[in-house]
Amino acid sequence: MKLIQTQQHWFPRLLNIAATLLAWGVLAYLMVDGVNTLLQGGPRPTTLSLPGQFFATRHSLLWYLVMAVVLSAALLGWAKYNQRRAARYSRRKRAPNISNAQLAASFGVNEDVLQRMQQEQVLVLFNAANGKLSEVSLVRQGQQRIDVRTSKASHTKEEPLAA
Known about the structure:
52% of the residues lie in helices and 12% in strands. It has helices at residues 10-39, 50-86, 100-107, 111-119, and strands at 123-127, 133-138, 144-147, 152-155. InterPro entries: PGA_PgaD.
């Protein structure tokens, strides 16, 4: 199995590696810290006073807010970087018009067969072993098959598949 990979500049690749290693490091730290806390019997509050709990909760919420802002800034920066990087590519250009003769040549059929194919709503296309179109089945016209190599139509009545 092959994956399609494009050649990447050294800086984005280094940035991806550093971000991945940082994320794995943070995950490993949190996992080890959590396991150690569980093994030591969990956190034990020394006092159960309302102001102490409020300030501890406020401190935790402040850290969550700081982390959310940092992660949001990182994601926004990454999105803007990708937007600037992809701005030089024109991915939404309209494909040039193609004539019926060119389309027929790309399918390997004559223009008469192409016109019949364009009139159908449902087609079944059969390919030969070399990948070229070998036969067309016109469903609406009672399973009429056209051998595109000879452009001869044959009317075959096939049994529907049993469910």
